[in-house]
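Morning, I've got a small favour to ask if you have a moment. It would help a lot if you went through both lines with me. I owe you a coffee for this, so here goes:
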Amino acid sequence: MKPKIPEEKELSRRAFLKCTGTIVFAMGTSGYVLGECGAKETGSGIAVSDGYLVVDVEKCQGCISCMLACALVHEGVQSLSLSRIQILQNSFGKFPDDLTIEQCRQCEEPACVEACPENALTANAQFGHVRMVDKEKCTGCGSCFTACPHTPARVTVMEDETFNRELKSLKCDLCAHTPYHWDEKGGGPDGKLACVEVCPVGAIAFTRKLPVQEGKSGYKINLRDDSWVKLGYRKS
């Protein structure tokens, strides 16, 4: 049974689409503004994502199932190169520093979105304000890759077969746009996320709560229960 992550009640996609108007008002000194429909925005005017992936690197077994599933639902092939989530392993490292999971953080202030000269990277309101790439607009310039402040970069630039092998950016969209998704309802914050569903040990989870943005502690958390403690793993 996969652990549950505390979630905050968020505005549903349907409720958002029903709302109209552009009136906003300030919310104290937190740096947010709130639209008429209740969608939070950062000081730069980019709406906060409705969902995030959090991981437990000590629980991860390095099976790379999440990487293969990610590429499969997005591109229709099992390819490590086309995966939006990354498992990095160090053969010479000692537990728990022998591997790590690096996933897109859906940043509160996304540098990749700000850096795109073609407005091809946006907080897509149709899919819960997930930071998404519009391949029709993307020119493969790599500005988003360079702007990403994390290592490794959470955005990659790859040749795209559907665009005559032109360079296009790839990043996690919480499975919002997955042409090969197994579920007819698809993914996105309100759907099924391939990496979460396929992980055999529950090392990846979804939360609607905005993680702490500074450092890694908000995204790398403890998902272990008492059964894992019995196996010799640390509970905290």
The helical segments are 13-18, 65-75, 111-115, 143-147, 194-198, 226-230.
